[in-house]
């Protein structure tokens, strides 16, 4: 007798073993027809892991009757019911009488058509009369066979499926055979080697459950790095490999002096307007630049005056912008629009470091947040991350900058760069960097670069023969390229899918 669906796992494994003692192999669909698939599969896996049984999965399609077909099996097909109603009326039936006798308008309508087609009835005036004494209800017979066997001739199945009398569904069963360690009872297997089993010596005769090295580990529900942090980690490793030192970037609010003036950005520049910048209203202004530590011996007052003179009347070979420079405007507080404000301060401190009377070469980088009053779209946010690098050395050229950028981006497998001349107030010459985005199917800007202007550097006290490269790119756009994201709002903002954050692997920037 087949076990009920509620049979426990232990009872089911025992039932399987005893079924194999009488017949080998057995079919699960025949021996355990009422047991759910999940239960039989779990019991078989338990036995197979101990080599007590082997099994093969068998997939087949079975036909299942629809509710209308169940009615046909019980009461006959539509055409047979119409014929019987007409045959029983010796003088025939009118259409109205037929509907009344059959009791179902749908059965009457469908049955008439098929009965006419089979030439079981005909129309005589306004009445229907029978043409034969008896019929063979083929449809009912076919459905009975399908009800019992779950199958039939493919052409018949296709026809009945077309009439929406049955549906096909996939059924999975198992062919079960005895395994090399088959027995009628399962031996209890120990899962742990305890102090008690060692002390008693029972471990010598105990049977231990083997390790399943193919089993997946339990989900630990651990935290996950955001894809931006994964790519950020990759960028940091590239910078460290190329000999850069990381700059401190924990100052989100800067004065206009460091964010704009020290970078030779005029106070009338559109980038300093409210349309492009977030200003801080309280406190109304910052203090003048000053040393950040006791070891900082630079003359910040002189530097402040130099910057003012470069803007107003020019200095160090520059004619300046020729406008009345405002100290109050320079000390307004602003959410930094770029991390170049940090780079400028680092370069000024570098000017105070001398080795044998000479400023040493240096390489700095930073990766942190910046803020722009941007219109949000598929590739722009008002808050994003900037990746910035600065190289200060002697004898540098524009060709060297282009070569370095190609080497830098090649380390993250971004190749075939395109450079476009651009304008930056603090670099000359300047270049925008482009790369092809397969998802957007177009070139997108991934960075900006240039050589810092000599009047900006000489105002700091840096020597004339020291050349400084500067380049910056967003962290978001390379992340979009690496993860195939076409809309930046899927990376940051209200559209972020937490499953995307948790399940995406870390990107190897040096691999596809």
Q: Please tell me the total number of domains.
A: 3
In the CATH hierarchy, the architecture of the largest domain is 2-Layer Sandwich
Q: What count of helical segments does DSSP give?
A: 19
Strand content: 15-25%
- Look at the structure and give the mean pLDDT: 84
Radius of gyration: 42 Å
Shape label:
elongated
pLDDT below 50 for ≥5 consecutive residues: which ranges? 1-7
How would a textbook summarize the main sheet?
Answer: 7 strands, mixed
Question: Could you characterize what this model shows?
Answer:
The chain is α+β, with helices and mostly antiparallel strands and about 500 residues long. Helix content is about 35%, strand content about 20%. It folds into 3 domains: about 10-65 and about 145-180, Orthogonal Bundle (Arc Repressor Mutant, subunit A), CATH 1.10.10; about 80-135, Arc Repressor Mutant, subunit A (Orthogonal Bundle); about 230-505, BirA Bifunctional Protein, domain 2 (2-Layer Sandwich), CATH 3.30.930. It has helices at about 10-20, 30, 35-50, 65-75, 80-90, 95-100, 105-115, 140-150, 155-160, 195-200, 225-240, 255-260, 300-310, 325-330, 340-350, 400-410, 455-460, 475-485, 500-505, and strands spanning about 25, 55-65, 120-125, 125-130, 165-180, 245, 255, 335, 360-370, 385-395, 420-425, 425-435, 440-450, 465-475. The strands form 4 sheets. The protein has a 7-stranded mixed β-sheet with strand order 6-9-10-14-13-12-11, sandwiched between helices. The longest helix has 15 residues, at about 225-240.
């Amino acid at each position: 007798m087949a076990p009920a669906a509620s049979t426990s796992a232990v009872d089911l494994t025992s039932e399987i073993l005893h079924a194999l003692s009488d017949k080998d192999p057995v079919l699960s669909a025949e021996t355990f027809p009422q047991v759910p698939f999940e239960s039989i599969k779990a019991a078989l896996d338990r036995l197979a892991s101990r080599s007590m049984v082997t099994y093969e999965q068998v997939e087949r399609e079975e036909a299942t009757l629809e509710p209308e077909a169940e009615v046909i099996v019980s009461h006959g097909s539509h055409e047979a019911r119409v014929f019987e109603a007409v045959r029983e009326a010796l003088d025939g039936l009118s259409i109205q009488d037929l509907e009344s006798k059959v009791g179902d308008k749908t059965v009457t309508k469908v049955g008439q058509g098929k009965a006419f087609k089979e030439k079981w009835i005909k129309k005589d005036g306004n009445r229907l009369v029978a043409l034969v004494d008896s019929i063979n209800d083929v449809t009912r017979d076919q459905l009975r066979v399908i009800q019992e066997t779950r199958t039939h001739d493919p052409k018949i199945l296709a026809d009945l499926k077309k009439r929406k009398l049955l549906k096909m569904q996939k059924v999975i069963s198992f062919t079960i055979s005895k395994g090399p360690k088959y027995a009628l009872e399962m031996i209890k297997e120990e899962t742990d080697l305890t102090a008690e089993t060692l002390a008693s010596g029972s471990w010598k005769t105990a049977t231990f459950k083997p390790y399943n090295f193919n089993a997946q580990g339990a989900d630990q529900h651990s935290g996950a790095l955001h894809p931006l942090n994964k790519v950020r980690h990759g960028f940091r490793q590239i910078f460290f490999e190329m000999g850069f030192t990381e700059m401190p970037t924990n100052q989100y609010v800067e004065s206009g002096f460091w964010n704009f003036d020290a970078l030779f950005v005029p106070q009338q520049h559109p980038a300093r307007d409210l349309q492009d910048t977030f200003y801080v209203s309280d406190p109304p202004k910052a203090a003048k630049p000053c040393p950040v530590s006791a070891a900082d011996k630079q003359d910040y007052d002189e530097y402040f005056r130099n910057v003012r003179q470069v803007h107003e009347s020019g200095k160090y070979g520059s004619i300046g912008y020729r406008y009345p420079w405002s100290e109050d405007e320079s000390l307004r507080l602003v959410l930094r629009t770029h991390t170049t404000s940090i780079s400028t301060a680092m370069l000024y401190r570098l000017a105070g470091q001398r080795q044998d009377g000479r400023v040493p070469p240096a390489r700095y980088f930073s990766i942190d947040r910046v803020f722009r009053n941007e219109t949000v779209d598929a590739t722009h946010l008002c808050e994003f991350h900037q990746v910035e690098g600065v190289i200060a050395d002697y004898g540098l050229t524009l060709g060297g900058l282009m070569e370095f950028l190609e080497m830098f981006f090649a380390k993250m497998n971004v190749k075939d760069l395109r450079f476009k001349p651009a304008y930056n107030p603090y670099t000359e010459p300047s270049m925008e960097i482009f790369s092809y985005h397969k998802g957007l199917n177009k070139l997108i800007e991934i960075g900006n670069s240039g050589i810092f202007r000599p009047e900006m550097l000489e105002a700091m006290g840096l020597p004339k023969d020291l050349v400084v490269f500067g380049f910056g790119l967003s962290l978001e756009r390379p992340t979009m390229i690496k993860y195939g994201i076409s809309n930046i709002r899927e990376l940051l903002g209200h559209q972020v899918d937490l499953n995307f954050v948790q399940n995406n692997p870390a990107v190897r920037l040096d691999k596809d």
